[in-house]
Structures are given as structure tokens and as C-alpha cells.
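Quick start: what a row looks like.
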Amino acid sequence: MRTSETVKWLLLVLFSAGLNLIPPPFISGGLTAFGLPVAVFMALRMPAALSVPGIALAMAPVWFIHGVTLPVLLCTGLPLVLALCRRRQSPCEPLKTGIGVYSSLAVLILAFQQWSEQNGLNTAAFTTVSVTWFCLLSSVLSAHLAYLFTQLAWHPGTFKKDINFKYLLAYCFSALFFLAVLCVSYSFIHQYQQRQKSQIELYMAQRLHVLSGQVKDFLDTHQRAINFAAGALSAMSGATQPDAVQTGRLLSGLAESSPAFLTFLTAGAQGEITHAWPETLLAKATDAGMLDVSGREYFSQVVASGTPYLSDAFRGRGFGQDPIIAMSAPVTGADGEVTGILEGSLSLSSFSRFESSNINGFMLLVEDSERKLVYGSEVLSAQPLMPSPLGNCGTGCDALTKVNNETWFVRSVQIEGSGWHVRILYSWQRFLQLTNSSLITVLELLAVFAVTGLLAGFALASVVNRPLKKLIGQFEAFNPNNRDRGIVPSESLPVTELRSLESAFDSMQRRLFDAFDDLERSRESQRKLNLELAELNRTLASRVEEKTLHLESAVKQAEAANVAKSQFLANMSHEIRTPMNGIIGSCDNLLEDDLPRGAARRIGMIAQSASNLLMILDSILDWSKIEAGKMQTESVNFSLQKVLEASFHLHQDAAINNGVTSSMTYLTPLPEMLCGDMGKLSQVLNNLLSNAVKFTTEGEITVLAGFENGQLTLTVKDTGTGIATEKLEHIFEQFAQADASTTRLYGGTGLGLPITRKLVELMNGTIEVASEPGEGTSFTVTIPFDIAEAEPEAESEPDAFIPDNLKVLVVEDNDINAHIVVDMLKNKGIRCVRVANGKQAVAAVRQMQFHIVLMDCQMPEMDGFEATRAIRGLESEKAGIPVIALTANAFVDDQRACLAAGMNAYLSKPVKRRQLLSMLAQTWKTHYGSTGG
């Protein structure tokens, strides 16, 4: 076999197989294979040795997609029969075999098969037979036309008999007319079905939106009923101990207002059932020995969290075997502690109310977060609590899905605030029934148009055939090399269109001559342009390469500068945190001793000042993160009054030294606790008070604080130098101050107010300034905060357990920091051994027995990372000793590096005594157990 034939064969196989992958233009029980005409063309064009394996390969996608069905067998058999019966004596042979014999038999076979399966030829059966037959018919016609054209164009001597032009023209017109009408009809059917499908999907989407809202409202309404009843019980228990009569009335009223609940129960703090509705249930639970519900999730979850609880679907125990959903809420005492729960069992049958408003044919599924059925339409054979027939697919089921051996349209949505799903299904078979009637009408019209096209083709051929013979003679006289001679019109041509054809041919000849002349001139012009373009491309490429080199150099310089900046910030943080640890640690240790009240207050102010300095230092070191938009806020519970008073007292002495009075006024009652970023709030107030003290030499400084509608408003007023109006818009710019003499007179970097504004904006707040030169300045800050529940005062000692025999290895190269840490631990009775570098630490672990290692990171000879890896590499059980990083490296990357080196936990300097003892207790409990046993 020649190479060219092999290439043609391979291309045809690939082309046919690719067309067979295209989905059918519309949905029906019949088969439409777009690659079948190419397979038939191979059967007509190539010998059987090539065409048969080619047909098998080309039709393989059809078998893969549709499986072994009778329509697939019939469509595959068509090209195989034509290949085996291939003869070239007459061009009409394929039509006789393919249409006259094979397609007729195929229709009979398929009709019999449909009649047997469906007990008669109904609409679906007729559609299946018609669509498959039109697929066979159109494949033979289109392949035969292509075969006829290629043979006549490139192999005119293929056929032994001549072809009658009249019949050829009639056949070509009729076949092309039929194929065109077929394409238009299929397109119409496709658009019609798509409209039907879109309407169904639109209804499903709209109905799903409504249903999900209704289900959510249904659950929320019943949960609110439970919450309200639990609140009523809490109120009764706060005033006096509710008796059985009061509780019974409450449960009876709840049952009357919410009939979807099957049962109610109340349980005490230990899980013992105290009351139930109906009243007989309590006796039943007593007889069954099931009065303790402490192991049920609806009890344990509420007691642990103090919030209402909604369960997934499950089958009841003790009070019945009904499938239910448990809803529970906490019952609290006067002190706010959870003293019990109220639980209601919601019947799953109550969800049937949501299906009644669906249009006939649309089915409903409601699933909980574990994909168990809460409710399913009866048609789906879906029982409550059974696994979802759609499997664990979440909202990814929005497609055609098999359920109970039947295909369904599925649309899903997740109920907001839970893992529950609501799904609507519509039967694929019903969809086919909706569209089959229109499909049959179109197919009938297609058959009528096919007959009409055949008759019109023969009529046209008869009209055109006669004058064409005369026109051929005139075309034969045409000489393309003689530009002076055109076609002489023939008086014998009776058809106006043919006369126009003669004139058009002569005009076309002249235009072709002119076009060739223009083409030659265009080629010359194009050649010149190509030369110019090549020169331009060469110059442009050189410039691009030069710019690329410059850009790469600039990028490398920027990356190097960024690395240097990061390293500088890390080193700065480490070097400053080390002495800060000495200050804060010493204050922490001193505050543990019995000191005079004045001394304790001053030491406390030193500790608070050091902490504020540390927070300011952290913010300055994080300025690069602010510029890059990478600084984040944290949310902790804190006492607003303590933060305000600490910052105010910190600057009060400085104001007094300047001869300035200061005061702080609460405009509204302040909440005990807020939730937000305490450190950034403290830094904002410290920056504003520091500026007020700095620029005020007489008069007073006033701090006004108020909290309303979730907004904290702070105003810092002073009677200082003031700021000119034209300077106000520049004071929040970095390194900028109100006047050039400001730095000389008062000092400062010009970063305080820019940092303050950035911090306020990070907390979603605003800052405003008003000032008059010589009168003073007023800064007003508004920041949103959430009110937090009041927390009990923290005790001076950690609640966690620390054994008496705890032995700790302190690895620290700085003597001051080492002494501070050792003093913190010795006050607790912890035995400590201190070494100065990682090398000594590894040796100490080998020689002595320790429970925990406190490891600095940056040390001479061997750093903490290398020392930790060396300890982990020991072959004894000491390799697993807990190692806690205690380092001045305070960045997130440093924490990750410590954990990656094998350390168990991380503390950044400066560290406070309670924080250190808490970490030791936590590590002891995690590694050795609460008692070390």
C-alpha cells in the first residue's frame, strides 16, 4: 500500500471517529452518528482490505458511547455491507444497495424490535425508527455525493458506464435539497428541545431557590421555638425553681404551637431527663432505663458550646423508632451557666409539605449534612434515613443522573448555614415525551420535502439539460490566451439566465486578466514590504533584547534589596527583643515579690511601658508589611477600661512634668470586655497621647471615650501649638511634619501619625483631625468593636499542672535573659540547668536527665536549630525530649523554621512568667500526661 493511501486512510479514520464523538443534535431514542457518512465514504472509495478495519476504528466511539444496541449494530453494518458489495460498474449501485435494500431491511428490523419491547409502535418507538432511518439515509446520500464528486473530479474513468447529465443533475439537486432540509429540521428540533430544556431548568432553579428558603425558614422557625422555650425555662429557673406543672404547661404550649415536633424533653446539667412531653414518655424512659441523655450529641454539644444545636436525621431511641431531627437549646441559671437543655424531636414526615406545591413531574429530595435522606418523593422510592440515591456529590449533581435505573435532570442547592441540600429532579423520560410529538411532525415534513425536492430536481434537470448542450459548444470555442476574443451570444439560447451566464463569463474573463495584472503588481509591492519588515523586525528584536536585559537587572536588584530589608528587620527585631526580655522579665519577677504599693505601681508602669514600647517597636518593624498590604489584625477579648487607663496613666506623669493638666472622661458607660485588636488600639491611643504631651506646654490634655452601636469613639484634645489648615492634609504622610521647625524643636521621625492612620484603617475605623494654630488640636478616632462576654479575673498562678520534680534545661547565650528565665522557674520550684550554646545543650542532654528543653535560636558555636536536629538524631529515648523555642526571632517565618527543625512549641521574647509556666504545663501534659504517668 502506498504511503499516500495510508495517510488518506488514517485521516479519514480520525475524521470519522472525531465526528462520532459529537453529541447528537437532539434527544431521542434513535441514533445519529455524524461520522457515519465518512465511514460509508471509505466503504465506497477504498478496497475492503482497508475500509473494513477503518470502519471498525471509525465506529468505535459510537460503540463506546452508546454501547451494544440495535441502532448501533445497524449503523455499523451499513458501511460494512457497502464495502463487501463494492462494485464500480455503475455509480447507482451504492444507492440501490444502501437505500433500496439495506435501509429498508433495517427499518423493518428496528420496527419489529421496538414493537416487541414496547408492545406496539407508540410515539417513542416511531421516533426511534425514524431518526435511525434518516441517519442511514442521509449517510448514504452525503457519502455517495462526496464519492461521486471525487471520482468525477479526479478519477473520471472509474465508471464503465456513462452518466446521464439529466439524471445526475436531478439526483444532485434532490439529494442536496434533502440534506439541506434535514440540517434545517435537525437544527429546529435542537433549538426546540433546548428551549424546552431551558424552561425546565429555569423552573427547577427558581423552585429550588424558593424551596431552599422555605426549608431554611421551617428549620429556623422551629429552632426559634425551642430557643424561646429554653429561654423561658432559664427565666423561670433564674427567679425560682420551676415545678413540673410549669414545665408541663410550657411543653404543652410548645407542642400546640409547633405540631411538627413529636416529643420534647428537658434534662439537667448531668444529662438526667427531668420532664417530657407527652407526659407518658417519661414513664416509658424510666421503664427502659434511658433517663440519661448525657451521651447524646444534642445534649453534649449544647452543654459544651452553650449554643443551640440542630442534628442530622436519625432514628429515635427510647421514645420511639420514628425518624427525627433533634433541636436543642441551653437552659441557663441566674449566673449564666448552663443548667440543662430543652430538646424537641422534629418528625421527618413534616417535610412532605414542601412537595405539594411542585408542578406534576418534579420530584424533591432533602438531605442532611451526612447525605442521609430527610425527605424524598415517593416516586423515587426514597425512604428517610437511607443514603442519598445521588451519592456523596454535594452540589456537583447538577446534571443528568441515574436514580433507580431511570435518568433524571437534577438541580441542587445547599441550605445556607448548614450542610443540608435540597434537590429537585425531573424525569428524562417525561422530557422525551414532551418533545417526541414535535419531533414526529418535523420528521413527517422532512419526508414531504424530500419527495418535493426529488420532483423539483427532475423538472429542473429537464429544463436545463437542453440549452446546456448548446452552451457547451460556445464554451468549447473559448480561447483563454486570446484576450481580444470573447463569447459570441447564441441566438438559439432561449433561457435568459443562460444568456446572462455567457455575458458573465466574458466579463469574468476580462476581470481575471485585470486581476492577474494587479496580482503581479501586488506581489512586487509585497516583496518590497517584506524586505522593509525584515529590517524592522531585526531592529525591534535588538531593542527588545536590550530592554529585557535591563529589566532582568532591575528585577534582580529589587529582589536583593527586598532580601536585605527583610534580613535587617529580622536582625533589628532580635537585637531589640533581647534586652526587652530582660526588662519585662525582671519586672515580672519583681511583681511576684511582696513590694510596697508605690514600688509595685511603679514597677507595673515600667512593665506596661516596656510592653507598649514593644508593641510600638513591632508596628515600626511591620511598616514594610503595612506598605505591602500584608499586616493583619487579631481578635482577642480585653478590658477596654484597663487599656484606656493604662495608656492614660503612662503619659500622665509626662504631662505633669510639662506643667499640663490631664483628664479622661467616659461619655457613655463602657462595656466590660471588647473583642478586637487590643495592641493596635493601645498603640493608636499612645501615639495620640504622646503627640499631645509633646506639643502642649500649657493648658490641658483631655481624653474623651464613648461606646455606642458597636463603635468606640476616642477623642484626644490638647491646647498645644496647633496645626495650620493647609498643613492638615499632609500630617498623615510618612516622614512629614506640620512645620520644618517641628523636628528641630520637638524631635520625632514623622512616622507616628501615618502608622496611626494605617492601624485605624486596618481595624476598619476612621481618624479625623481639627486644629487651629495657637488654640490646640483634636484627633477623633472611631473604630468598630464587638462586645465580648466578661471573663473571670486570671489567677496569678496557672491552672495547669506542673510536677514538683520537673527538671528543665535552659539553653541561652545571654546571661541576663538566662538569669531571668531561671528566676521565673525557680520561684515555681522547677529545677533548672543553664548552658550557653547548642553544643553544650546536646552534651547536657546526653549526660543528664531532663524533662523539657528551653532552646534559644541564635547562639555561638551551634545555634538552636542545629542543636535540636542533633538531639532528634540521638539513638536513645532522649531523642524525643520536648524542645520549646524561646527566641527573640518573632516573625512568622522564624516560628515555622523552629517547628521544621523539630521543636515542639514556640515562645517569642520578651516572655512573661505566666506565659512561660503555661507553656511548660501544656508541654508536660501533652508529652508526659497530666501526672507524668
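That is the whole record. Residues 654 and 896 are 41 Å apart (CA to CA). The mean pLDDT is 80.
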